[in-house]
Amino acid sequence: MERKNAWSTYSDKDLKKLETISKNYVKFLDNGKTERECVTEAIKLAEKHEYRDFAEVIAKGEKLKAGDRVYSNCMGKAIMFFVVGKQPLEKGMNIVGAHIDSPRIDLKQNPLYEEAGLAYLDTHYYGGIKKYQWVAMPLAMHGVVAKKDGSLVNIVIGEDPKDPVIGISDLLPHLAADQMGKKGSVIIEGEALDVIIGSKPVKKEDDKESVKDAILAILKEKYDIEEEDFLSAEIEIVPAGGAREFGLDRSMIIGYGHDDRVCAYAQLEAIFDINEVPEYTICCILADKEEIGSVGATGMSAKYFENAVAELINATGDYCDLKLRRTLAASRMLSCDVSAGFDPLFAGAFERKNSAYLGKGVCFNKYTGSRGKGGSNDANAEYIGSLRKLMDDANVNFQTAELGKVDQGGGGTIAYICAAYGMNVIDSGVAVLSMHAPWEIISKADLYEAVKAYRAFLVNA
Question: Rounded CA gap, 439 and 255, in Å?
């Protein structure tokens, strides 16, 4: 079934809204290159819309009523937003959930060393990347250092035009005969993704590790951190520079981290645009660690979402385990994650009838997984039928897709984790070209349709 190009459906009013949302999204993307930065930006937006810190509400023993807005921060790397609805929580919530971590390169705990007159940072990549895409390009350093006195030092180097950038070198083609004969997965080995950060030595008698010492002096002067402080640091290496309009017609956006911050921002735009008291409690989840399996204390497999809902039940009435189970099982969710956009240059990897196309609206994936739907949620037909009506009633341009040809590959989202509670869940997101590359591409129209879709779902599902 052929879907319309969403651009052909827009009025001047739509186009104005689309451009405003796109500009605000670019700011969010540039200011949120790590999961911690995304949480910080989300809280700033939330507090402008009168959301309160749920931890403070709980500490004061306050009760919540319909219309109250709170956020629950998990270790500064995952966050949830709730608006209390008119109906009892046991009737279920309308939930949208995305992840805010993106593929990148992380520093090891003992990263700094010197070799052949160059200072390097030793790294370990995070998530599914094509390693060869990360060399010979300007990179930036973002993160935090936790010092022994308990203080946190925030680091951002390479984003201000006055900043230096860092990067990973590649082998010149004149000497690359052996390299070019390798499979793509090993053209650049993981242990070769070390970042060059300096070459100017300090003056000292033995000249040993003098470039490394110069770098340590810079870090001490600018951030008051020492080499040992790397032991308790979370520092991420990401592409340097901001997102930009893409295409001569400015119809697209190229940037780092569209997967999955485009869906995360669309959720925030949708929930913060809701001023009325919703019929059912609405929830927006921004999770961490999806790119490595949703593990750890801030991944969706942890219990922070369940714990927050338990606290919400207690803050709106009397808590009991049965109410919690009923609330989760009766809820409805969109697992908001990006889809692989059909790329005609690599058409052989896709099945055209069941692919997501840039500019044709928000995408619904009945299932993801790989090879026989392994690891998939596989949403119910009845649930999809209700969503079709909801989207049509709200004049949302939408499409359906799966992730490439059968047996071509596959992937997963947080959908199956939330579905384990018994709630209805389906994957829904924005089509992306060059997914997991340092620079990814989306359509402004798909971002706009995602915002419309998520708002309609939160209010009317």
Answer: 5
Cβ 25 vs Cβ 45: under 8 Å: no
408 shares a domain with 370:
yes
Q: Which residues of 147-184 are buried (b: 16+ CB within 10 A; e: fewer)?
A: beeeeebebebbbeeeeebbbbebeeeeeeeeeeeeee
Q: Please tell me whether residue 133 adopts helix, strand or coil conformation.
A: helix
* Residues whose CB falls within 8 Å of the CB of residue 20, separated by 6 or more in sequence, listed in order: none
Instruction: Tell me the average pLDDT across 279-304.
Output: 96
- Residues 219, 282 within the same domain: no
Tokens 């099945």, residue located: 351
Which of these ranges, 168-182, 258-272, 369-383, has the smallest mean pLDDT? Answer: 369-383
Same-domain status, 117 and 95? no
Residues in the chain: 461
Q: Are residues 133 and 192 in the same domain?
A: yes
Q: Strand pairing partners for 203?
A: none
SS3 content of the chain, % helix, strand, coil (to 5): 35, 25, 40
Query: Which H or E element spans position 400?
Result: strand 398-400
- The pairing of beta strand 410-411 with beta strand 369-370: antiparallel
- Cα separation, 266 vs 91, in Å, equals 25
As a whole number of angstroms, the distance between CA 365 and CA 45 comes to 29
C-alpha span between 428 and 426 (Å, rounded):
6
Rounded Cα gap, residues 395 and 380, in angstroms: 23
CA distance 212 to 231: 17
Model pLDDT for residues 41-84, shown as the tens digit of each residue: 999 999 999 999 999 999 999 999 999 999 999 999 999 999 99
1 belongs to a structural domain = no
Specify whether the CB–CB gap between 108 and 123 falls below 8 A: yes
Same domain, 405 and 335: yes
Tokens at residue 252, please? 């697209």
Distance CA 349, CA 423 (A): 32
Is residue 248 assigned to a domain?
Answer: no
**Which two structure tokens, joined as six digits, stand for 362?**
């928000």
Cα→Cα distances 371→239, 293, 366, 367, Å: 32, 18, 15, 12
Question: What phi, psi does 427 have (nearest 5°)?
Answer: -80, 140
Closest CA to 378 of 412, 328, 339: 412
Q: Is the dihedral of CA 75, 44, 450, 129 positive or negative?
A: negative
Q: Give the Cα-Cα-Cα angle 84, 88, 90 (nearest 5 degrees).
A: 110
